[in-house]
C-alpha cells in the first residue's frame, strides 16, 4: 500500500492549466510559513481542513488514469513543510508521472530533495519586507530566496518565478529592487492580486488594485534582466 498524504488539504482531479503543457492532478497541502494578507487559501493556511483520508482514492485514480494524467502538482499552502513528499515524488515518477512543485522558496534545502520536474517559485516582495509584510519568522530570508531563485535559474524553461502584484506589497520600486535577485531567470510571471474570493486579511478585499499600465511597466523593467516576463490575467 502506498503512503498517506499527510497534511493534504484539497485535491483537484484534473487540470489543464496548473502544469504547463501537462494534464495534471493537483494536491493542495495545508499550512504555510507565511501569512500573506492577500492569500486566497486561508482554509489551507490555517490548517482547518484535512483530506488525508483521500490518499487511497488518489493513488487509485493515478493508477487508473496512467497515460491520461501526465503529471502531479504539489501545491498549498506550502508543500515543503512536509519533507516526506520527496519519497512520494519518487513513487510518482516510478508510475511515469512528472511532478511540479509550487513553493514560496523559504525551505530551499527541502525543495532540493524533491528534485521536481518543474518548479514554480512565488517571490512575494523584496526579502527585507518578508517579516513585517508577510509574517515570516525564519532567519536569513534573503539567503533562502537566493538559493531558491538559483534553482529556478538552473532549471531554465522547466521553472518559473511568479509575483503577485498586491497593493502595499509590490510596486515599481520593489520590482526594481528585485531585478538583481531575478537576473538570468528564464520566465517570470506577474499576476494581479485576486479579489474575487475571501482573503486572509479582509482589508485587502477592497484595496484599489495596481493599475494594469503599472503592471506592464513592471514587466518591462524585469524583461531587461530575465529571459521573458509575462503578465497573467487575474
Task: Explain this structure.
- This protein has about 230 residues and is an alpha/beta fold.
- Helix content is about 30%, strand content about 20%.
- The N and C termini lie far apart (about 40 Å).
- The chain has a single domain, classed as Aldolase class I (TIM Barrel, Alpha-Beta Barrel), CATH 3.20.20.
- The model has no long low-confidence stretch (mean pLDDT about 95).
- It has an eight-stranded mixed beta sheet.
Break the fold down into its secondary structure elements and pairings:
Blueprint: E1 8-15, E2 24-29, H1 42-45, H2 55-64, E3 71-76, H3 85-94, E4 98-103, H4 108-114, E5 118-122, H5 130-134, H6 141-155, E6 159-165, H7 172-182, E7 187-192, H8 212-223, E8 228-231
Parallel strand pairs: 2-3, 3-4, 4-5, 5-6, 6-7, 7-8
Antiparallel strand pairs: 1-2
Helix pairs in contact: 7-8
In the residues, how many domains can be counted? 1
Any low-confidence stretches, pLDDT <50, length ≥5? Answer: none
Instruction: State the distance separating the first and last CA atoms.
Output: 40 Å
Q: Helix-strand pattern, N to C? A: EEHHEHEHEHHEHEHE
Short overview:
With 234 residues, this protein is α/β, with parallel strands linked by helices. It has helices spanning 42-45, 55-64, 85-94, 108-114, 130-134, 141-155, 172-182, 212-223; strands at residues 8-15, 24-29, 71-76, 98-103, 118-122, 159-165, 187-192, 228-231.
Distinctive features:
8-stranded mixed β-sheet; 234 residues; 21% strand; globular; TIM Barrel; alpha/beta
Amino acid at each position: 500500500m502506498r503512503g498517506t498524504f499527510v497534511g493534504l488539504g484539497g485535491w483537484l482531479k484534473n487540470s489543464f492549466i496548473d502544469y504547463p503543457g501537462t494534464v495534471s492532478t493537483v494536491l493542495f497541502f495545508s499550512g504555510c510559513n507565511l501569512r500573506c494578507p492577500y492569500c486566497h487559501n486561508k482554509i489551507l493556511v490555517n490548517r482547518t481542513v484535512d483530506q488525508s483520508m483521500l490518499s487511497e482514492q488518489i493513488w487509485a485514480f493515478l493508477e487508473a488514469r496512467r497515460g491520461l494524467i501526465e503529471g502531479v502538482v504539489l501545491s498549498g499552502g506550502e508543500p515543503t513543510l512536509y519533507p516526506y513528499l520527496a519519497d512520494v515524488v519518487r513513487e510518482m515518477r516510478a508510475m511515469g508521472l512528472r511532478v511540479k512543485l509550487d513553493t514560496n522558496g523559504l525551505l530551499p534545502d527541502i525543495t532540493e530533495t524533491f528534485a521536481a520536474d518543474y518548479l514554480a517559485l512565488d517571490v512575494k516582495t523584496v526579502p527585507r519586507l518578508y517579516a513585517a509584510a508577510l509574517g515570516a519568522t525564519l532567519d536569513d530570508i534573503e539567503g533562502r530566496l537566493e538559493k531558491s531563485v538559483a534553482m529556478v535559474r538552473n532549471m531554465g524553461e522547466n521553472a518559473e518565478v511568479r509575483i503577485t502584484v498586491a497593493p502595499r506589497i509590490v510596486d515599481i520600486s520593489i520590482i526594481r529592487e528585485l531585478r538583481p535577485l531575478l537576473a538570468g531567470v528564464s520566465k517570470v510571471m506577474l499576476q494581479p492580486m485576486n479579489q474575487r474570493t475571501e482573503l486572509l486579511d479582509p482589508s485587502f478585499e477592497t484595496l484599489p488594485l495596481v493599475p494594469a499600465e503599472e503592471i506592464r511597466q513592471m514587466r518591462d523593467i524585469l524583461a531587461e534582466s530575465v529571459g521573458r516576463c509575462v503578465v497573467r490575467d487575474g
